Amino acid sequence: METWLEIDLNKLRSNYNYIKNKTGVEICSVIKADGYGIGAFEIAKELEKMDTKLFAVAFLNEAEELRKEGIKKDILIFNYVSPKTLQSAIDNNFIITLYSLDQLKIYQKEDIELDKLRFHIKINTGMNRLGINESDLEEILTIISEENIKVEGVYSHFANAETDEDFTDYQYERFKKIVDKMENSLKQNNILKHIANSPASLKYNSYYLNLVRIGMILYGLQPLDRTDENIKGIFTWKSKISNIRKVSEGERISYGKERITEDKTIAVVPVGYSHGYMRQLSNIGYVMVEGRRCDIIGKICMDQMIIDVTHLEELEIGNEVIILGEGITAEKLGELSGTIADDIICKISSKIERVVKRIEN
Ligand SMILES: *Cc1c(COP(=O)(O)O)cnc(C)c1O
Prior knowledge:
By secondary structure, the protein is α/β, with parallel strands linked by helices. It has twelve helices and 17 strands. The protein starts with a strand and ends with a strand. The structure holds pyridoxal-5'-phosphate. Pyridoxal-5'-phosphate binds next to helix 9 and strand 9.
């Protein structure tokens, strides 16, 4: 094994319990994008043993995959579900997001039993991505009633809960107003109402309603710009040194025309951008070997990178390298490469082997 991802399920449980205890409401575990790149199935299998109310993914095929692998709990699909695949949503008992009047009208034209589908309605409260506008609400509610459509939840999404308090308050107030209006017209009881994501769950204890949707916190990412010690990193991306050599000042390094400015010992690590390691981290990223920081030098290649190990002694081929985790945070790599932590981790390729552990602390 040249590179692998160690996932500590005890840390996952700890993050889950932290947010469960803090909010005291139902949890929707967000495992879209293959569990933010970490591995949706491993995460789901563990959380299914906890009391998570439901899972959420972006697309129907992700939900199908999880069902095939044996995940039984409810799965909410956030994103567009093509009308041709609605039968699968019925067969697999998925929950679809109803986010526009046009979408509902398209579904009505399909040869499908609409009353067999399960829906959560999404409300647009200012992000202007998916979500029903207040002006369409009445017409939608009429169709829902005529077609006997099952609405089990209502939700919206915060655009910037981490830093914009005014807009977050505004979105919440809008949501609350629309939900109150809807509740009188929907016949179902126990409707799940939800708007809080990870940053909102940490920052606003009055916005939990009866469910919070958590992604970042499960995976150990920090949703706010301060570090919350209760949120634990759940994975470490590792590799092994594949080659070591000495190079002299003036020699070239990797692709392109870059040159070494002083004599160095360098090592090759078999991880590159095909594994989802950002090429933008060429010359600015770093890894850890034997607890010491080693800078990436030269361009990151498709399957390899070169690091500076001049300051390390007695290094051998096969020595372990930490790519991400244990001192290298996704937040830091995001900052260095001009993106966010979520982007860094959800690019981690599914071709990398997953090793599941339970580390006692
Ligand atoms: C991704 C996503 C979440 C989870 O967000 P985090 O900030 O990672 O907790 C919640 N709701 C929706 C609609 C999402 O798309």
